[in-house]
Amino acid sequence: MKKKILFILLLLVVCLLPTHAVLKEANLDTTLFMLRTELTQYHIDLEKQNRMAKAQQQAVIKELIHIMMQADQNSIMLYSQRNGYIFDLTYACNEATEQFRKFKSKAAPFRNMINQNNIEVARFDSLINYLYGMNTVFMSKEAQVNRNVDLTLAVNIRRQLIEKQQQLNEYIKAYDVTDKKLKALNDYANIRYSEIQTSIFNNGGANYFKILGNLGNNYREAKSSVTEKYKPAPGMMSQWDVRIIFILFGIIIFYGLISVFLNLLTIRCLMTFLIKKGWFESIKESFMAKRPCIIMAMTVVTFAAILGIIRMITKQNFIIMASDLLVEFSWLVGVILISLLLRVGNDQIKSAFRIYSPLMLIGFFVITFRIILIPNDLVNFIFPPILLLCTLWQWNVIQRHNKKVPRLDMIYTWISLAVFTVSTFCSWIGFTLLAVQIIIWWMMQLTCILSITCIKDWLGVYAERKNLKHKPITDKWFFRFINKVALPVAGVFSFIIAIYWAAAVFNMSDTTWMIFNKHYIDSENFSASLYSLSLVACLYFLFNYLNITTTDIMRHHFEKSDPTSAASKIMMFKNVLQVVIWGIWLMIALTIFHVGKSWLLAIFAGLSTGLGFASKDILENIYYGVSLMMGRVKVGDYIICEGTRGRVSSISYTSTMLEATDGSVIAFQNSQLFAKNYKNMTRNHGYELDILEVGVAYGTNVKEVKKILIEALNKLDCIYHEKGVRIVLKSFDDNCITLKILVWVNVLTQYADDGIIMECIYDTLNEHNIEIPFPQREITIKNVTTEELGVKKQELGD
User: Fold this and answer.
1) Is 204 a residue whose pLDDT tops 70?
2) Which class is domain 687-768?
């Protein structure tokens, strides 16, 4: 084993040694020889690179030609776009900005290579100057030869580096020319993006009532736009020709029918046949009830897979764009349907499918509008009534099926109705494109919500089946991470992702990302963006998980090592851990929000000054609380404080809670508890000395009484037998001889044990006919005659 470790260490040392540097050798001759070896290898490497330079040059030229041609194509496409065709314009803007982004990432390595090459040239300049100026008089012949060879190699290497640098500079010049062209195109695209945002959110078109008031003219304008847009171009067939659109819809219908046929064959025929033959008996009832819905969901999934294959094998631009959108839409619908299949019961599945139908249909309309690049005039003309009809449909399915679906789905459908209502209102007042954006956002947001809901329900079923609630933290920490961190974080980011996807319908995803990263509060000492707020919220879930899980791990450890003191140790650890974890979270949050040092200093200085006096008592209580939790008192101890007897239920930094024996809960400040004379009744062995008294009549044999009482009490289970029972004579009282009984009883059952002991004493004395005296008073009644009574009254009168 030691040999293996030594070999690994030697291997690491060899790997970490520099391979292209000359270190201090035994003498100058050896140093020059090592330099010769390194320069020879470097020269050979440069020769290889130069032989490969021609192939690299051809590849770079080819890449530049392709970029230039694509830039020209995008420029013509973008500069030729007219107002009124927003889907065409957003597609052209996206192509321009995407090409500029990719170009910048490709040009960066060339600039890094030039910087590295400049460093190498400067290094060899210094090396050549020093070798040239070395004094060779005192060198050996071998050292002189090595020095001359080193100088020759260094000069040749420098020449090769200069040639390489010139070649790279030529590439950079060509890239700079292309960069200027693409930057101008990118700037123009961003300007058009700003105009699109303004038209969506600020400057709506004419409201739909005006459109209806001038129905004839608006119909003719929409018809003219459609004719102009979709009229086939003579001579050459464009990749965006209307005939391609018909071909696409033919492909959709054809492969849609194939998807339906495949799923009918496999699910309705094959699976049903196998189930009827006795296979999959456990899912028979659920499968037969959900079979139509399963066929629908799997048809959507199959259709999405087929479109994905078409997307990978085709090179036609329109088909690529349409396939991407249809695959996304199919995925959204598939997730909704599969989530319902997994969550909803057999008797609710059909109603659940129906309540989401209006949203899926309106989503299909929006995706269709985007695919065919529909003109604005036609969107403004037909979309508001479609939205109104879908809103009424949504209201109808809610009234008919809302009581037949789970509670969460009922809430989601009411939110969908609210989204439909807002979108309809926006479209009818002229903000049709905003209505499109709202609808597609909610569909994607709902998809994320249903996915998270489905996963959470499955986790709940898994936890119940595995009985994770009653298992130690070592068996459920990963489950808790998924439930407490992964799902909440997914919920936070689902909002951003849904908006991002909705913006992607208009090819405005990059612009949306800029909106997320924009600092809406941007001062010298504080800045905040939507992304930073989301990040801080996600970190909250992570640190909350760390707090809970670490506490449970330590509780598991303390309970195994020392169950008697586990509660107090856990309380102390929990309080300290909360301060540490949430302090780290706060510092990270302040860093994310770029809170300035001056603000931090001012805040902490003010807090330290203002709170210093106000928190004097609090700090004192915290100090005493730590002292208590270190072992003086632990949770579960029975204490007596100023005549109040009870069990310590909790110890915090500021106070200690006591459950009194009468059922009341009393809170003592830690400083007050320290100042009081309290007794810890369970700190030692859990038993306390109980002193009881009993009296016997004068003349009783005291020694005999003590003997029989000790024998009787020792038979009881409620006393502490190791300490035994003692009985002493206390005093000679008026009516009896008082005996003091000393017995140890359990602290937790002291009141009940007193009753048992007193009852035993009473029964024992009665059995042995020993009298327990009590105070008595004799009253004598004397008969008086009438004459004597008169004499008495006369005496009293005198």
Assistant:
1) no
2) alpha beta
